[in-house]
Structure formats: structure tokens, C-alpha cells
Design goal:
binds magnesium ion, Heat Shock Protein 90, 323 residues, binds adenosine-5'-diphosphate, Ribosomal Protein S5, domain 2, 5-stranded mixed β-sheet, alpha+beta
Length: 323
């Protein structure tokens, strides 16, 4: 089992940002409304994710770190209608196989938390502990026992910017959750979690950015597109300021990025990338967001339709005079 975990770790966790993504997605799935992420040296030394979600009981806490112990699939039908972010039951055991890992978790109505400690995949301690309700996971010395992987880690500042990017996107796709991200004890990102996307964008990119944004709002052919694009005065040098979401999940999609570009630059000279946050809602059966283990890639049953919807949404937002 431990070997399988180490192999799976290669798929799930290639770097600190991937660890943070898995842990934060679990916190979101658990209903956390306030999620704090701390890292030391870009997560290469230490990562801690704390949430105020529903927590786990004593048995479940021990199960959670076993391979394929997901609580998120009960029937084969669930496989096609997955709405939660995680579903494979691989993240925690994979991460625990390649780090010094602890899990502290408490249900609201229980007096005590459960503490589980795992070193390189070996459970070294399970006990009751005092803690607030919710869950805290710590991951120290990632890849300490897989030196070949550890060598692939970049500098702490490069790794920290990857983490920053992931947390930005998770925060953007969950304006109703308050996120805080610390690197070496310094607060580097914080969102208020009031549920408004515009406020979340301002929390992340600065309050001066908000007045430079145009709202996007479009419905047609069963597709709903909403969000914001920056006015042409605010072009950026890379796509880093673009967040694309499908049914609430951040995705990578060349086609979607292309539709945004083509609409945006249909009348303007192309000399940069607009800051953009676009949410697309389509019927779940028309999209497969699980083609990659990291769930970033997305497949649509009708790409043209999505392309058209984004194109129309962005063009009409640019054409509408700002009030
Ligand atoms: P998956 O998310 O694919 O189910 P994971 O390995 O990420 O698999 O997590 C295993 C299980 O542990 C989850 O299904 C969930 O029941 C539980 N779990 C993990 N993190 C948390 C958390 N922060 N709060 C509550 N339960 C959690
Ligand atoms: Mg998970």
C-alpha cells in the first residue's frame, strides 16, 4: 500500500502548490468558510492548512489517510454526477507518503479532536487531542524520502508564487470563503469571503483595480457566462491574471482563453492580456472536468458552443458603455 501511495504521490503532488490545492479543496468540500494556509519557504519546508469545516470523527480521521478512503463516492452513479472537488480518495495518503504529515480534526459536537501523525507513509501516532472544531493538516519536509523528486523543487520564491497562484484561483472560485495565505509568517493574500466576486477580485488584485473592470453577463444556448474583464487600459504581460471557471471549478482551457482573446481583441490591437475572471455554467452532462488527475483540464461535448458563448459575452461587455 505504501508503494502505491508513493507512486500515486507522483501523480497528485508534484510540488507544494499541488499539496495546497488538494488540502484546500478538501477544506472547501468540508464546508469551511474560513481557510488559512501557512507556508514556510514556499511550502518546501512546511505547509499548514486550517479550516472551520465539519471536521472528522475518530474513525473517519484514521480512514481518511488510507488509500481510496474517499467519503465522496457512495454509488457508481456518483461517479458521473460528482459535484465535490475531490473524489479519488488519494490525496491525503499520497501526501502523507512523501512528507512528515499530521492531521488534527474535530467534529463540532465532539469534545476532543483526533490527531494522526504519519512519517513517510508510516502511521507513527494516533491519539485524542484538544483543538478547535474543523481540520488542520500539516505537511513538513515534502519529498524528504524521495530525493529524486525533491531535486525537482524550484527555489522557495518560485514555489511560493505557484502556491499564490493556486490560492488566488481557489479564492476567486469561492468568493463566499475567507482565505488567508501566509509565507514565512507574512500575510501575502487575504479575501473577505462576503460572497461578492468583485470584492474578492479587489481583495486579490488591489482595490484600485475594481473600477477598471467591466461586468460580463450573458446567457444563450443553455450556457451562462458571468464575471469581469478589465478595460483595455489594464492589459497585463501574461495570462496569470486570467481565471476561467466551469461550473464553479477553475480550469485550464486553451479554447476558452482563445475565445476571450479573440473577442477582446476583435477591435483592439493585441498587445497584452486582459485581467479576466469568467465563470461559465453549463449542464453537467456537457462537460468532463476530470480528464487529468489534477482536474485542471476540461472537455466539452460541444466546444464551438462554449466558444461562441464566451465570445458573445466578452464582446457585449466591451460594447456596453460603462455607466
Ligand atoms: P478525496 O478528497 O478525493 O475524497 P482525500 O484523500 O483528499 O480524498 O481525502 C480523504 C477523505 O478525508 C475525504 O473524502 C474526506 O472525507 C476526508 N477529509 C479530508 N480533508 C478533510 C477536511 N479538511 N475536513 C473534513 N474531512 C476531510
Ligand atoms: Mg481531496
Amino acid at each position: 500500500e505504501n508503494t502505491a501511495n508513493k507512486i500515486a504521490a507522483g501523480e497528485v503532488v508534484e510540488r507544494p502548490a499541488a499539496v495546497v490545492k488538494e488540502l484546500v479543496e478538501n477544506s472547501i468540500d468540508a464546508g469551511g468558510k474560513s481557510i488559512e494556509i501557512e507556508m514556510v519557504e514556499g511550502g518546501t519546508k512546511f505547509i499548514r492548512v486550517t479550516d472551520d469545516g465539519k471536521g472528522m470523527g475518530h474513525e473517519d480521521a484514521q480512514l481518511a489517510v488510507r488509500r481510496h478512503a474517499t467519503s465522496k463516492i457512495r454509488t457508481a452513479d456518483d461517479l458521473v454526477s460528482i459535484s465535490s472537488l475531490g473524489f479519488r480518495g488519494e490525496a491525503l495518503p499520497s501526501i502523507a507518503a512523501v512528507s512528515k504529515f499530521t492531521l488534527t480534526t474535530r467534529l463540532k459536537d465532539e469534545p476532543l479532536a483526533t490527531y494522526v501523525e504519519i512519517n513517510g507513509g508510516v502511521v507513527t501516532e494516533v491519539r485524542e487531542a484538544g483543538a478547535g472544531s474543523g481540520t488542520t493538516v500539516t505537511v513538513a519536509d515534502l519529498f524528504y524520502n524521495t530525493p529524486a523528486r525533491r531535486k525537482f523543487l524550484k527555489t522557495p520564491s518560485a514555489e511560493s508564487s505557484h502556491v499564490n497562484d493556486i490560492v488566488t484561483k481557489l479564492a476567486m472560485s469561492h468568493p463566499d470563503i475567507a482565505f488567508k495565505l501566509f509565507n514565512n509568517q507574512r500575510l501575502v493574500l487575504s479575501t473577505g469571503g462576503n460572497g461578492r466576486l468583485l470584492d474578492t477580485i479587489a481583495d486579490i488584485y488591489g482595490h484600485k483595480v475594481a473600477p477598471q473592470l467591466l461586468p460580463v453577463e450573458y446567457s444563450g444556448e443553455g450556457i451562462h457566462v458571468s464575471g469581469y474583464v478589465a478595460k483595455p487600459v489594464l492589459l497585463k504581460s501574461s495570462r496569470q491574471w486570467q481565471t476561467l471557471m466551469v461550473n464553479g471549478r477553475v480550469v485550464n482551457s486553451r479554447m476558452m482563453a482563445k475565445a476571450l482573446d479573440n473577442a477582446y481583441f476583435s477591435l483592439l490591437p493585441k498587445n497584452g492580456y486582459p485581467l479576466a475572471v469568467l465563470q461559465i455554467y453549463i449542464p453537467a452532462e456537457n462537460v468532463d472536468v476530470n480528464v487529468h488527475p489534477q482536474k485542471k483540464e476540461v472537455k466539452f461535448s460541444d466546444e464551438q458552443k462554449i466558444y461562441r458563448a464566451i465570445y458573445k459575452a466578452v464582446s457585449s461587455s466591451l460594447a456596453t458603455p460603462a455607466s
